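Thread: Putative membrane protein, structure

OP (GT): Posting the sequence first so everyone is looking at the same thing. Length is 545 residues per the record. Can we get the structure tokens written out before standup tomorrow? I want them in the notebook alongside the other entries.
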Amino acid sequence: MTRVLVRDTRAGVGMIVALAMPVAIGAAALAVDVGSATLATRKLQGVADAAALAAATDPAHAHAAAERAVAAAGLAVTVDIAAVPGRYRADATVPVAERYTAGAMPADAARVTLTAATPTYFGRIFGAHAITIRRSATAAQTRMASFAIGSRLASIDGGVLNALLSGLTGSSISLKVLDYRALADADVDLFAWLDALRTQAHVSAGSYDELLGTSVSVGDALAAAASVTRDSAAAEALRTLATQVGDATMPLDRLIDLGPLGGANAGPEGFARINALSLISTLLERSSAERRIRLDLGGAVAGLATTRVTIALGEPEKQSPWIAIGDTGAPVVRTAQARLYVEAAAGTAALPGLGGLASIRLPLFVELASAEARLDAIDCPAPDARTVTLGARTNPGHAAIAQIDPAQLDDFTTPVALHPAKVLDTLLLDIEARADIDLGAAEQWQSVRFEEADIAGGTPKSVESGSAVGGVAQSLAHNVTLTPVLAGLPLPVGPVLGAVGGQLNLLAPTVDGLVNLVTGAAGVHYGEADLRVTGAKCGIARLVA
């Protein structure tokens, strides 16, 4: 009987199926239950991301914010929530795992960990009724600030500014003093301007970075600014300039760095503002092919009989932008380098011993390096209590009463040769003058803090050199060395030298005012740097790990 059963194969399939059934159920459990757990894990990660973003937006109530986010997700399982506020350091030199510090205060980030149990379908046959899943997400507040370095003009002379802008454009600029005052007082919304420029210049760019990388004409840029400027007088002046500036073109990424907002195609209204007059001078300065401009102002400057000004503009270091948006640490924004040579002469005056009238000259050379600013910190203790801290240092430079060759001004890699200047030239007596001031060759970084009212009002703040350089021409005139060059005749040199020194001291304040006006239009001052925080945003959370 036993031998018969062994030879009988009619029940073989049933036996194989019976033996394979546990394996089939196990495979089903693996495929269905693990697949279900994987799907649930992905869904839980999405909820953890949302909860971390909510918690980072309000770190003081991180757990409650995370609970609301989880509840809004409507998960069908019970979720355990652990939300820990802390601080996040966005520093590329720090390993990613070490950038978040749990519990550090004041908190600007949060890490949320969600734990849940997803049910099994086939696994329960083997006693496994659920699979525990756990997902974490870390989010930090994005803090951005828009800042610029340059200067608003404290005094405005329409004739000098028209001559300077005409020299930059190679055309004839003719605005009135009231136009310049309106431009100095007006601001342009940065993102509204860029949106208008996209239309004005017919640029089909998706993101702001693509728009900024496209060459546009300065005329289109000014016309776009006019269309979004709320001040009617400033808008009219911008429209007038747009028709007078010629056909120069340039990519705007030489001026503007939008940082983390560059990849967007729409920006926050009111976040960043640009002073209209600074925008004009910067656009014209950096689009101009002519880096050396000669202005013959004649007797247009009050107190001077003749005035000639030669200004040379260098490129900012590493093509640094003029206005930048970023979080702490980068970029550093620099002004242009500048060299200025002023040849001023007073009207004729009687000098002792010369028996007639003579004119006193004051040749002044000023060299300015780049002033620079960086974003050091953004603090947001409350939505209406933003503070931004900039680091800045002024431009080291040099000033002298000296005679130079203006052709040397263009080459910023080579020092300009300085020679004694002939300040008095008569048949009987010449007087040469020489004086030098170092404007601070090793300036330290200074910290400048902008409060909420400063940011909202666009209030400029200045940093000054450690050297006393307020009135450079006056300082030079007080310390000038005068050397007589006689024609071989006995003359009362002492009284003449005293009179010439007195005349130089009278000329110096007027020359200082002229230098301040011209360098201010170029965005620089000797011994000073003007800073503005034009916008700041806090509390926008982003996932960081």
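GT: Both are above now. Quick notes for whoever picks this up: The first strand starts at residue 79 and ends at 88. DSSP finds 13 helices and 26 strands in the chain.
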